[in-house]
Amino acid sequence: MRLPKLYIHVRQATHFLRWERDEFAKYFELVSEPSEDVPLLSFGPDVLEEASELPASKRFAVLFPGFRHNPVYNLENRELHHRLIKNHFTYVFINPGPLEIAYKGLDNIVMYPFSVDTNLVKFKRYRRAIKSILHVSSDSPQKDWQRSEAIMKKTGLRYEVYPPRDPDFFSRITKNNITKNKIRNFVGLRQKKYLPLGYVDHSKVVRKYQKYDAFIHVAKDIKDPNDGVDGKYTAAFIEAGLTGAIMFWHDTYGLGNGLKTVFELPLDPDEAALRIIQISKKINIKKHSKETRKEMLRVFNPQDSVKTRAKKILKSI
To answer: What DSSP string describes 16-45?
Structure first.
């Protein structure tokens, strides 16, 4: 039987679509151009307005935090999104988290589970003790990464903030990438497209997760309309859990911790550090490491995540 057609409109969020595209292809024939007789799926907050003006038999959208869109605290951004969602889209899919606040009251919002590239995050080992701890995030006010650093330092454990908060670190990456592309040109190979300045090759970040026993992300809610809003759980957080790391987190928006294996911490660095030490002495580390990886695979796999959205779209076209 021939699959129904679907056009996916994406720009900045191609990285997040990469591991979902093959799953969408199980339900739809993916076409390269929009058309009046083909449903459209807008992918990412940066293309919602653009997608609302493209031809389509019906329009759907996948929205997630980030890309300098903050409909939680930027009320102008929220008003624009509400108008677009009401007037131009059949359904809009969001993850549990802060976007629940931003789009409250809209009738065509559908919740779906976030997904990560479970094939990329190769498993190496279960943790047997908590002797080291890692925080991964961008250098932005909303990430409040200094708080995680302060907590890690107070635990007395070996710790690291990654990527380094050092502009020269990223300059070296950029220079190396330029050099590698010059070599490719010289030997007649096609140039490689690298990540923008401020990003590290994802495989390197995954290897960093695997070197540490635990992962922490504790951030105070930064009510800055000009900074990107964070997710309930960050992609870095989920991926670290996939490696079997023991997970520590703070419920920034007070929306509840939906993961059984994740330990919630208070905002106060002294209290949070003490809680980490107490937990590390109390739990069976190896057993909890196994349970953490198992839960992350079950909750955040792209198969179930895409299936939720695909079924809703198919029932509507």
So the answer is: HHHHHHHHHTTTSEEESS--TTS-EEEESG
Are 76 and 41 within one domain?
yes
Interatomic CA distance for residues 254 and 312, integer angstroms:
28
The verdict on 37 and 157 lying in the same domain is no
Sign of CA dihedral 78, 313, 257, 132: negative
Exposure string for 13-23, b = 16+ CB within 10 A, e = fewer: beebeebbeeb
Using alpha carbons, select from 47, 67, 87 the residue that is nearest to residue 227.
67
Q: Are residues 138 and 282 in the same domain?
A: yes
Same domain for 152 and 51? no
- The answer to whether the predicted template modeling score (pTM) of the entire model surpasses 0.70 is yes
Per run of 10 residues, the mean pLDDT along the chain (length 317 residues) is 96 94 98 98 97 98 90 95 98 95 96 94 95 94 95 98 87 81 80 73 91 97 86 92 98 92 98 98 98 97 98 97
Are 95 and 65 part of one and the same domain? Answer: yes
What residue has token string 């990285």? 15
